[in-house]
Design brief:
Elements: H1 14-28, H2 32-35, H3 38-48, H4 54-63, H5 74-82, H6 87-97
Length: 121
């Protein structure tokens, strides 16, 4: 058996924490009856997952919130969200189930105005 020695670090799980933080803000703006009902949260999650952001979409695929998902781990996200578990802890639970969830990284946007493109002589 291969032991996973890498410890969960929320800072290294940026797509999960960023996406779920944005999603939590969306939920906070909705009716209280939705915020405390994990099945309604799941419906909102599926809506939020119809995203054009490739890494967010991949994250949604991992947790089973897209039509093409092979697995269904959405309850690992929706149930804790219904009782306001911190996003970092939810991502930690997901990491325990599938460490690849933290391999997702957003592409770094390069500002061409600040990059030195002059030829080096």
């Amino acid at each position: 058996a291969i032991l996973v020695s890498a410890k969960y670090d929320p800072a290294k799980c940026e797509v999960c924490t960023t996406f779920l933080s944005k999603f939590r803000k969306t939920l906070d703006g909705l009716d209280k009856s939705i915020q405390s009902d994990h099945t309604k949260i799941e419906a909102e999650l599926r809506k939020a997952c119809k995203t054009k952001q490739p890494k967010d979409e991949r994250f949604c695929w991992y947790i089973g919130a897209t039509e093409t998902s092979a697995t269904g781990m959405t309850q690992v996200v929706t149930k804790p969200l219904s009782f306001h578990k911190p996003v970092e802890k939810i991502c930690g639970d997901l990491y325990k189930k599938d460490s690849q969830i933290c391999d997702l990284k957003y592409e770094k946007v390069v500002d061409l105005k600040t990059v030195d493109t002059s030829p080096k002589s």
